[in-house]
Amino acid sequence: MLPTSTRYARRRPPISTEETPLQTKDYFDLLCRVQIITLASDLSFSDKNSLVFDILIEELGAHMAYAVMTEAEEEKLIFQSGPYVFQELSQEFHPLRQRIYDAVSGGKNIVLTKEDCYGEVKKIIAMPLFVDGAPSGHLAFACASEDMPLPTKDMWRILNIITLWISREITDKRNFASLEANNLKLIDSNRELEDFAHIASHDLKA
Question: How many Cα neighbours within 13 Å face the side chain of 120?
C-alpha cells in the first residue's frame, strides 16, 4: 500500500452519522481532500484510487473496497483496497459479486445486509459504474460487521461523485485505446495502399 502523504490525505476520525451543520462542513472538507487527490497531475489513476479509497474506507467504517467492470461479458477487477480481503468478493463470478452486479445494473445505489450476503461479509454498500451512459460495473464497500452505518445524504453525494470520476476515467481510457487501435489500422491501411501503388507503378513501367 502506498504511504499516505499528508499532502493528499490527512487521517481523521470517523464522521458522525448525525445530521448537523458541523457534519455538512466535515463532508465539504472530505470532498475537498478527495478532489485534491483526483485532480493531482503527478499521480497515476491507480495511485489516486489507493489514496481516495483509504480515506473512504476509514470514513465509512468498511474493511474492503473494490471496483469491477464488465466487458464482453467478462469481469475485470479495476482495483481492490482495504485492510482485509474477502474471498467472496475477490473471486471472479462469485455469487455474491454477481448479486451485487445484478442489483446495481438498474443504475441505482444499493445496500446489502447480512441476509443478502455470504460468508464473512455482513454488509455491502454498492454503486453502479457507467461507460457511455450505461451501467457497466460497480464500486462496492464491504464490512465484516453489521455495525457499519449507512451513508448519510452527504456521504452518498460524495460516493456518487467518486463513481462518476471512476466512470469518466475508465471511459476516457477505453476511448483512447479505441482511438489508438483505429490509428494503427489506418497506418496499416496506408502502408498497404503504398505497397499496392509501388507494385502498380512497377507493373506499368514494365
Answer: 13
pTM, 2 dp: 0.70
CB 4 within 8 A of CB 11: yes
Q: What is the CA radius of gyration of the chain?
A: 22
How many CB atoms are closer than 10 A to CB 116? 16
pLDDT single digits (tens) 43-80: 888 888 889 989 999 999 999 998 888 776 677 888 88
Q: What percent of the chain stands above pLDDT 70?
A: 70
Grid cell for residue 126: 454498492
Cβ count within 10 A of residue 184:
10
Report the pLDDT value the prediction gives residue 20, as an integer from 0 to 100: 46
Q: Locate 58 and state its grid cell.
A: 476509514
Q: Using one digit for the tens of pLDDT, what is the confidence trace for 166-182?
A: 888 877 776 655 555 55
Segment 85-99 mean pLDDT: 77
List of residues 6+ apart from 204 with CB closer than 8 A: none
